[in-house]
């Protein structure tokens, strides 16, 4: 047993929690199952790993670039508040779970293993479950397993005395969430990418599904009323000098300079020098310009990473889908979608979501909320930029601006309520991304006040969602992952009728 646990621990630490190597393993296995020549297997695996590493450099650069603003807003205005960010949330669980519940954080890794197995079983039984997606984003799974561990322990404290029952219950709920949530993003992702063969496996999967549906309804509503439907961002040709905003790199650089430049001016040169972000003799102007233009640099790096590994992943996964998990697709990091649709949807979604978050934070301060929130870069950027990419594809520019703004409000208000209630706010952080600010608080309320009846409602509701999806489109439901071109023909025939 110890040998198995050590093997799992090694795999979880070095592969499952390292997305580049997890993607590389999937590509390796997929190409082997497709019986590709050894040099194609090796070349494809290297390309996938390096591509994801490039994406990680872009993502990490975006996060670190935001640090002076995040730290500055907290320290400059003496805000003693909880940060909504996946890493702050994971640290809060690590620091508080033993003190609050008398449990070891090491059990989170066991929860991760069982939940991942549940996801595999659910997809393997797809004819019964109607589930088609395997959640492969390991670092996200660790963060979610940490937060789910705290929320379920809080909601069902009686389980604390029985570790086996506790882990089984948690794994069923979490594994179902991974499978069902990512499954909901298959249709909008296939439409966005024109059948690239993947879906989302991140922190806002149910949010993306909901906002994609709302964006589509907004488009239909405008058409029914005879109004001119909002055009997608990429279809808008701006006149005169504004045409420079049609270029993604220029648009990102200018928007970020206006937005972050204003915040950095408020923080002031003296503070930035004192905090060690700016050198004593350095130019304040060029510090601002360099910091803001770096967003365009890191976004371009991220998009390069996407282009490098997505083709390898989608081609190789056909081997896994045909031999091990028929009709399935991998659920991957939300940043992968930034290589599709309008590149300008990314900065627009981020800025609109940031405005929503800052307004919500201001309201919390005015209301003297017992839990104050500081915006973390990961939720405000990766949630809202992703929502904007999908909303733009379904409902045009109007949806790409309105829906991320609403998302920003939800992230702050939802996180403040749930983190304060369950006690995580006292440890300085909460995961804070859309599903965990909206969907998981609902799960927690049901389980807390209805106990095992609430747990049953959550499980049954999750199991029912793919069944309802299947009933709504029996002909196209599995076809969309098995043969996207045939699915498009079927959809065109239905539209013609």
List the helices and strands in order: HHHHEHHHEHHHEHHHHEHEHHEHHH
Number of helices: 20
Uncertain regions: pLDDT < 50 for 5+ in a row? none
Give the CA-CA distance, first to last residue: 60 Å
Which whole number gives the mean pLDDT?
Answer: 85
* Strand order, sheet with most strands: 5-1-6
Largest sheet: 3 strands, parallel
Could you say which overall geometry the principal axes of the C-alpha atoms support? globular
Overall helicity: over 70%
SS class: mainly alpha
* Strand residue content: under 5%
Give the radius of gyration: 23 Å
Number of strands: 6
Describe the structure.
It is a single chain. The chain has 497 residues and is mainly alpha-helical. It contains 20 helices and 6 strands. The chain has helices at 2-16, 19-33, 38-65, 67-76, 86-101, 107-124, 126-129, 138-155, 163-184, 186-193, 205-224, 248-267, 269-274, 284-323, 345-366, 377-395, 397-422, 434-472, 479-482, 484-496; strands spanning 82-84, 133-135, 199-200, 329-332, 373-375, 429-430. The chain has a 3-stranded parallel β-sheet, sandwiched between helices. Strands 2-4-3 form a 3-stranded parallel β-sheet, with helices on both faces. It starts with a helix and ends with a helix.
